[in-house]
Write a sequence for this structure.
């Protein structure tokens, strides 16, 4: 048995059941669907974020004079910086639906719990004492709390509803009213539990659930998860899985909470005029994923130097698709999947470009506008320039160059073999 066969068998034994378990797990499904449901918010504000932060002096002066700049920043702050609210509602809705119950009720209960657990701060504004809620608890500090509540509360709700703890009304009552009032007892039980949890935490040194989760869970997870090395290794592992035909999405779904928390923290810092806490992490993210998992856009560009008719024809299919981050045609068309020839560049391309990006961060004055979020099919050269200007575009350009150079010698071998086979076939036809 060859090395690749042993590696494939080992990975399939480990990753096959893992990927299946992740894909079928109702909590992971709810998390993934919940995070995906929040995408319209980030994408919907993209145009406002781009136009409101274009680094063109006359344009910025115009926005400042008309008040559009402050309105744009406020709008972004009240959408992108409050992702915790949207996430808790969407996760709980999806989990409740998966459990076969009324998704709206599950979402409302979870959202109310999320807000009820927030500490109220009192401040004097214009001579009057005003109660306030910290927006950070609805943003970066609240992502993990939102995930926890978004999964726990609908789960409890569904379990209690299964116990038939419902308010029974006469048949004459309209179904809409019955459905709304049925969870009354369940809601009473759940909110009583939440009340005592809030009171109990107020007696501790943490004070509230947000500080508790931040200190005990979020900080350790974010410390290791947002390391550029963690990001590089994660994408190398996804590349390895994709090489063996295991779709990387289940793996990425486990990492999304870290990505969302880091992005929200960067957004909050940007809007406050502070340095981005995860700048290097974001820059490395631009470098480790170019043209899809496996960084196959570099291989697509290598086909421009093809001699064989096979790859001259194939480049017409794979290059346009891969520019828009769709790399299934090249994964299954070449194929690169289970092709030992492309194992090294496909698996380790993220490592090489990621390490080089870490070096570029130290020598280039790179800045990123984290409020700009574009659809995943946006070409990398467009998204990098829009969110980070010319210097981030240079990082992307250096990365695609590295991937191209990594793939080129292996493609030359593949292309030469295909060319020789074509020439031999032509000679055979001439002899006939």
């Amino acid at each position: 048995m060859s090395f690749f066969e042993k590696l494939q068998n080992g990975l399939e034994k480990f990753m096959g059941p893992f990927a299946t378990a992740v894909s079928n797990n109702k909590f992971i499904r709810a998390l993934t669907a919940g995070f995906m449901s929040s995408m319209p918010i980030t994408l919907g504000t993209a145009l406002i974020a781009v136009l409101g932060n274009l680094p063109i002096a006359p344009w910025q002066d115009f926005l400042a004079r008309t008040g559009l700049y402050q309105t744009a920043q406020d709008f972004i702050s009240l959408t992108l910086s409050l992702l915790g609210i949207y996430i808790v509602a969407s996760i709980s809705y999806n989990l409740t639906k998966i459990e076969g119950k009324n998704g709206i009720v599950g979402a409302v209960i979870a959202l109310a719990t999320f807000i009820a657990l927030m500490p109220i701060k009192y401040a004097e504004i214009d001579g009057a004492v005003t109660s306030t809620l910290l927006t950070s608890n609805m943003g970066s500090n609240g992502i993990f709390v939102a995930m926890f509540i978004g999964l726990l509360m609908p789960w409890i709700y569904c379990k209690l509803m299964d116990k038939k703890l419902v308010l029974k009304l006469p048949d004459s009552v309209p179904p809409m009213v019955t459905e709304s009032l049925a969870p009354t007892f369940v809601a009473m039980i759940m909110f009583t539990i939440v009340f005592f949890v809030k009171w109990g935490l107020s007696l501790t040194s943490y004070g509230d659930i947000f500080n508790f989760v931040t200190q005990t869970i979020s900080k350790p997870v974010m410390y290791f998860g947002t390391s550029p090395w963690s990001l590089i290794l994660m994408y190398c592992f996804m590349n390895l899985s994709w090489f063996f035909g295991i779709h990387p999405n289940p793996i990425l779904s486990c990492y999304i909470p870290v990505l969302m928390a880091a992005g929200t923290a960067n957004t909050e810092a940007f809007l406050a005029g502070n340095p981005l806490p995860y700048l290097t992490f974001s820059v490395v993210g631009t470098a480790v994923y170019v043209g899809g998992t496996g960084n196959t856009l570099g291989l697509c560009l290598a086909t421009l130097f093809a001699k064989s008719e096979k790859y001259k024809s194939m480049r017409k299919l794979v290059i346009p698709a891969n520019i828009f981050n769709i790399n299934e045609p090249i994964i299954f068309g070449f194929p690169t999947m289970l092709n030992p020839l492309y194992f090294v560049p496909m698996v380790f391309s993220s490592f090489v470009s990621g390490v080089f990006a870490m070096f570029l961060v130290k020598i280039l004055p790179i800045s990123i506008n984290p409020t700009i979020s574009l659809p995943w099919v946006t070409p990398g050269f467009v998204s990098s320039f829009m969110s980070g200007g010319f210097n981030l575009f240079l990082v992307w350009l250096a990365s695609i160059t590295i991937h191209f150079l990594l793939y080129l010698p292996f493609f030359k071998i593949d292309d030469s073999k295909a060319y020789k086979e074509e020439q031999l076939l032509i000679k055979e036809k001439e002899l006939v």
